[in-house]
């Protein structure tokens, strides 16, 4: 039988960047223009099958950490993986993403796999965060980096697959 490796994954990032939308796109293959805001945290599982086994992600979707700052440490303390999301049209959300990277580097498991997702790629024409800037930041910090769109379904399964592969190779 296929070996299954559990992995606790947390979604972090400023409110409205598209965390819940990315997750709903992954799980339901759907997108909602008016996504209800998450209260507290929601929990989902999603399994990615690889050649040498499967990674079963136990995914925690957190609410806007600008309001629930003190809740976050209990989510990330035992996490094996994190996706930190920002909105490519909003520079402040990228600055917030950098803060979360530092926060995890200090407080999370030392082996945590961190992915940076520049979401809303479909709004490329009004972007305010350049791809090169994010890619450089990701490279310097050892992060997986992809630009994604929950709306047009770009790099959604791919980012989870990249995390699963990195976890399997650790
Ligand atoms: P969260 O607060 O980070 O969970 O963000 P939500 O998933 O609730 O999304 C906030 C808003 O952004 C909603 O109106 C979504 O429809 C919209 N949104 C999410 N992802 C995308 C995307 O990839 N492209 C566009 N254009 N809008 C998005
Ligand atoms: Mg949400």
UniProtKB/TrEMBL annotation:
<dbReference type="GO" id="GO:0005525">
    <property type="term" value="F:GTP binding"/>
</dbReference>
<keyword id="KW-0547">Nucleotide-binding</keyword>
<dbReference type="GO" id="GO:0003924">
    <property type="term" value="F:GTPase activity"/>
</dbReference>
<protein>
    <submittedName>
        <fullName>Ras-related protein Rab-5C-like isoform X1</fullName>
    </submittedName>
</protein>
<comment type="similarity">
    <text>Belongs to the small GTPase superfamily. Rab family.</text>
</comment>
């Amino acid at each position: 039988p296929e070996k299954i490796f559990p992995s606790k994954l947390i979604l972090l990032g400023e409110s409205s960047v598209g965390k819940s939308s990315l997750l709903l796109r992954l799980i339901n293959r759907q997108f909602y223009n008016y996504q209800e805001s998450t209260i507290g945290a929601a929990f989902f599982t999603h399994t990615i099958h690889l050649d040498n086994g499967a990674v079963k992600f136990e995914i925690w979707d957190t609410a806007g950490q600008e309001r629930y700052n003190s809740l976050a440490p209990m989510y990330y303390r035992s996490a094996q993986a994190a996706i930190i999301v920002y909105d490519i049209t909003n520079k402040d959300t990228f600055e917030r993403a950098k803060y979360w990277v530092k926060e995890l580097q200090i407080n999370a498991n030392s082996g945590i796999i961190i992915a940076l997702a520049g979401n809303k790629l479909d709004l490329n024409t009004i972007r305010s965060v350049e791809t090169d800037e994010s890619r450089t930041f990701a490279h310097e910090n050892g992060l997986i980096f992809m630009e994604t769109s929950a709306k047009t379904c770009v790099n959604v399964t791919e980012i989870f697959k990249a995390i699963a592969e990195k976890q399997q190779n650790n």
